[in-house]
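Re: export button greyed out
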Amino acid sequence: MAELRLGSVALVEPAALRVEDLRTHFLTSDGIARAVDGVSYHVGRGETLGVVGESGCGKSVTALSIMRLIPDPPGRIVAGRVLLHGRDLLALDEAAMRRVRGNEIGMIFQEPMSSLNPVLTVGRQIEEVVALHGRLSAREAAERAVEMLRLVHIPEPARRAGEYPHQLSGGMRQRVMIAMALSCNPGVLIADEPTTALDVTIQAQVLTLMQDLQERTGTAIVLITHDLGVIAECADRVAVMYAGKKVEDAPVQALFDNPLHPYTRGLMASMPRLDTPLGSVRGTLPEIPGTVPRLSRLPEGCRFAPRCPLAVPQCREEPPLLEYAPGHAAACWRAGE
Amino acid sequence: MSVTAALPDAVRFRPLVVRRRGFAARHPRIMVAAVLLLVLTSLAVFAPLITQYDPQALAVTQRLRPPSWQHLFGTDAYGRDTFSRTIHGGRISILIGVSVAVISAVIGTMIGLVGGVVRWLDPMVMRISDGLMSIPAILLAIALMSLTRASVGTVIVAITIPEVPRVIRLVRALVLTVREQTYVQAAVSSGTRMPRLLLRHILPNTLTPLIVQSTYICASAVLLEAYLGFLGAGPPPEVPSWGNMIAENRTFVQLAIWNVMFPGGFLAMLVLAVNMLGDGVRDLLDPRLAGRLR
Amino acid sequence: MPLLILRRLAATIPVMLVVAVVVFLMLHLSNGDPAAIIAGDNATTEDIERLRASLGLDQPLAGQFVSWLWQLMHGDLGVSIFNRMSVTSMIVQRVEPTLALTLLTIVIAVLVAVPLGVLAAWRVGTLTDHAIMGLAVAAFSCPVFLIGYALVQQFSRTWRILPVQGYTPLAEGLVPFLQHLALPAISLGLIYTALLARMTRSTMLEVLGEDYIRTARAKGLGVMPVLLRHGLRNAAVPVVTTIGLGIALLLGGVVVAESVFAIPGIGRLTVEALQQRDYPVIQGVILVSSLAYVMVNLLIDLAYLLLDPRIRY
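Workaround output, generated via the alternate export path:
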C-alpha cells in the first residue's frame, strides 16, 4: 500500500497511522496562521515515532488534527489525509470519528492534574471509556478499570479506583491517563508531552511503563516532546518539526549521529551535556539566534532561513524533503554540510 | 464532507470574516447603551423645556385620557399629563441612581480599604457586611423609610445602606489580592508607608472593578427606588417618581394601562441601558471579571 | 465531617447577631423618639409614656437589647401595635403563600435558566448565544410590576385563561393553586432566571475551556456526556452559589409581586405594616427573612460537600 513519492520514506509494511500532507490553519485577527502546513509522517505497529520541535512548531496541533479535536472556529483542517490502518479519518462524519477516539486511537496530555475531571473518581473516568466503546455492563466496566490500573502498576488498584484525582500524585495521575487511553486496546497512542510536567525520576518511570506496555500490546506510539533526552530514550524514529513543517525524518540513532538539517544541529548543540567542559572558551551554552516566526507572517521559502547559519540566496525557494540515507530525509538545500 | 476542497481559504472562511472595524462596531453593546442613556438623560435634563404641561398641574376634566396628540402619553387619574410626569420622573430616578452609586462607592471603598489593610478590623467588617447583606435590600429600605419622614434625600440614604456591603466586599477582596502581589511586598520591604502604598498601588487596581460594580449598583438603585415608590415607601406622593406614578395608577390599570406602561417602560429602558453599559465596560476593561462580578 | 457542618452552623450565629443589632439600632438611632414613632402620629403624651414603659424603652440601651434578644430566642417577635397580635403568629399565618410563590419561582427559574445557560455556553458566539444573553439582560432589567401588569393584561384580561390576582392554597386543589401562582412566579422569576442564566453561561464557558473537557472528547464521548457529566458537574458549585445569593433578590421581589397580584403573604404584611407604621411587624419580617436567607445559604454550603469532592477530602 505504500506509494513512492518524492520526499516520503518508503515502507515495506502498511503503517498503523499515516499522516499525509496535513494542513491545519487558524483564523486569527492577524491573518491566517498556518500552524500545520503540509506535514507527513507515519508510525508502524509496535514502533515509537518521536515528534520533536520547539513550542509553536505545530506538533501538538498535528496531534489534535489527527484526533479532529481542533476547535472550529477558529481552526480548520484544510487539506491532507490521516490514514488509520488505511482508513482516512478526515473523511469520517463526527459520529464515526467519536467511535475512533478513545477506541482506536488513545491520547494522553501534558498536565495530568488538569486533564482529569476533578469531580469524578479515577475509576469512573476509565469505566466511562470502556463502557462506551466496549458496550460493557457497569460491573464489567468497573472490573476492567481496576485491571487497567493494575496494568499501569498502581498499587491497591481497587481502592485507588474510588479516589479522586487530587488524592493522587502527579506520576500516578499520568499513569491513570495512560490506563484510560489504553483501556480499549487502541492501535495507536498519541502522547503529547507526557512527562514534561513531571519530576525527572517520575519521568523515567512513566516512560519505562509506556515502553513496557508497547512491548506487550504492540501499540504504535507517537511521542511528542521538546526534550531530546526523552527522544533518545524511547523513540525508534524521529520527525523534527519547525514552524508548521517537518524538516527532518530519521531513525533515532542516525539523527543523533548525523543530524542533517541545521535546525536539528542547533537543537542538539543547545542541549546541556555532562561532557561540556566547564571554564573552557565554549563555557556558554550555544543557542539558536532569533525567534520562531509568526505563523501568520511566514517568510518566503525555507522558514528557518532567517535564523540559519548556512542560509544562502537559494533558500528563498522552499527546499523539498529529500532522502539522503536509507530512512533519513531532510528539507534543506545544504543538508549535511 | 471532503476536507480537501479546492476552494481557496478566503472563501471557505467566509463566515468568520474579521476586519478591523471601528470602536462602535466592535462594541455594539456599549454604543447602544450609551445612545439610550444619552437620550434618556437629555429628556430628563431638558424636561421643563420639552414638556408643555406642568407635571403637577391638575385638570380634573381631562382624567384618564388615552394617548393623543395633545397628551402624548395620555393623562392620569388627576388629569395630569403622563408624558410630562414620565419625563420628570426620569430626573428623580437618574438623580437617585447616580447618587446612590457614588455615595455607596465612596463609603464602601473607605470601609473596604480599612478592612483589607487593617487586619484585626477585618473579621468585624466582614461580619457586619455579611449581616447587612442577609437582609433583603427592599426590606431594609422599607424599614428605614418607615422610621423617617419621606423625602428624596431619605430615599437615597435608605437605598445606599443596603448597597454599601457589596462595595465593601469587592474592595476588600481586591485589596487582599493586591496585597499579596509581589510588587506590593517589594514596596513594603523597601520601606513604603501605608498611605503611599494605598494611593500608589492598591487604589488604582481597585478602580476598574469598582466602576463596573457602581454601574450595576446604579441600575439596582433605580429599580429599588421604583419598587419603594410602588409600595408607598418612596419619595413623598407629590414627587413624580416612576414608582409613585405606578402606585397611583394601579387601581385604574384596567382602564388606563398607559399610565403604568409608560413609566414602567422607561424604567426598564433606563435600567437596561445602565446594565448594558456595565456589561460592556466590564468586557472592555477586563474580560476576566465576567465571572467575578454580579 | 460532622465537625465541618457544626462549624458552618456556628458561623451563622455572628451574622444573625449583626442582623439583630442592625434591626435594634435602626429603631433606636433614628431621628426621634422610638416610643413616639411606634405610638404613631395620633398618640398623646400619656400614650407615648405608657408605651415607653410597657416596651421597656426607658431602660438603658444595652439592657433593652439583651432582653429583646432573649425574647427573640424564645420565638417571641413582639406584638403588633396595630392589632395587638403576636408578630410571630401573624407571620406564621401568612407564610404559606409566600413560601409557595418563592419555591415555585425557584423551581421554574432553575429549570429554565440552567439549560439556557448551558446552551448559550455551548453555542458561544453564535446567534443562539447572543439571543439568550440579550433576552437575559432585558429580563434582568424589567421591573416586576411592568411584567406583572403586562402579563395580567394579556393572560387574564385578554385571553382570560389565568386569574387576575389572589391566591388559592394547595389544599384546595393543585390546578387553581398553580393558576394563581403562575403569573406572579413568572414576573418574579424573570429577573432571577436571567441572573442564573448569565452565571451558568459564564461558569460553563470557563469549565468548557478546561483540559479535562479536551480529555473527555479525546475519549470519544458524545456532546451530552461532555456537557453534563464533565461540564455542568464542575460548574455546579458556582451555579448553586448563585442560586443561594439570588434568594436575597427573590425575597425582595416577593414583596412587590405580592402587592401587584394581591397575594396574602408576608410581603403584603410588610406593606400593610409600613402603612400603619407597625414597626414591630416590620422588624419581625426582617428577622425572619434574614434567618431564612442565612439558612438557605447554609444548606448550599453543605451542598458543596456533596458536589465537590475536593472539599470533602
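Chain C is about 80% helix and 0% strand. The button fix ships in the next patch.
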